[in-house]
Amino acid sequence: MRAMDSGYRRHGNDGRDMRHGWQRWFLGCILGVAAALSVIAEADSPDDALVGQYRHSSVFTAGETRRSVASIARRGSGYSIAWEEDDGNLFGGVGIVLDGVLAAAYTEALNGSFRGKGVLAYRISGGTLDGVRLPSDAPEGLLIQETLEGSPALEGRYAIARSLDADGRDYHAGYVEIVRHGDTYQMTWFTPARSYEGVGLRVGDVLVASYGNGFAPGIIAYCADQGLLTGVGTYGHVGTVGADRMVRANNGGSADVPAPSARCRDAIERWNPSLIRD
Predict the structure, then answer these.
(1) Residue 119 in contact with residue 104, Cβ under 8 Å?
(2) Is the whole-model pTM more than 0.85?
(3) What is the distance of C-alpha 71 from the center of its chain?
């Protein structure tokens, strides 16, 4: 009886150990999923406060200001953006937000649609660029989670260390070449063959970029204040940057143009000393 009783107790301890092991495994799975969801949630939270109509102005040549009416609408985890200039030219774009910076890639198009391949926004942390990509053909506007690893100088070759779609599947592999040109960042993707060209801008600790097949769409980096988007824009390989601004159309009924916050002004001017203003 004692031997059988002793064996029973040993079996009971093994059972408790097994239960405790399963509990630890299950808890680990929950924590892992929660951590992954927290990363995705951070990138997948478009701000409805940005949605609406705006009075838009942009400057790319000293003394020349182009004006338009712009509209921002939700597009899954990002935005669709449309501009109609006063002289009738139409532009279409896509956008995403990271750390209070709206990245807006755009092209001219007769029907106002975006002809590029997408827009990106990376958080700069030393030689690591961690952020999100919105492909223009992404179903339901779902984002790609992406990390690049390279030099802290923000120039040179960056390995695509992580590129995952919304289902956790690999999206891209290869590397990105970044070349500084004025205040802009010329970017070429090799995945693994040469696949996309783009151009980037820096605002604060965020690098935004457009990309396309065989050409670099225009890109604007906006710093968001309430009712005001203050930005800097460029296109192609020109290497120069111009001031860009969108003011919410109703603006609380005021005709005055609000001033950008010191936070936005400093984030733009520090990294874009050649900024052309009107």
Answers:
(1) yes
(2) no
(3) 19
The three-state secondary structure class of 59 is strand
Domain locations in the chain as residue ranges: 1-43, 48-271
Which residues sit opposite 206 in a β-bridge?
A: 123, 203
The Cα 108–Cα 102 span in angstroms is 19
Q: 129 or 13, which is more confident?
A: 129
Pair type for strands 52-61 and 194-203 = unpaired
CB 200 within 8 A of CB 121: no
Instruction: Look up residue 230 and give its two tokens.
Output: 């203050």
What pLDDT, in 10s, does the model give residues 162-196?
Answer: 999 999 999 999 999 999 999 999 999 999 888 99
CB-based burial, 196-212: b 16+ in 10 Å, e otherwise: bbbbbbbbbebbbbbbb
Q: Which residues pair with 170 in a beta bridge?
A: 164
- The mean per-residue pLDDT over the stretch 49-74 comes to 89
Cα dihedral sign for 99, 264, 271, 275?
Answer: positive
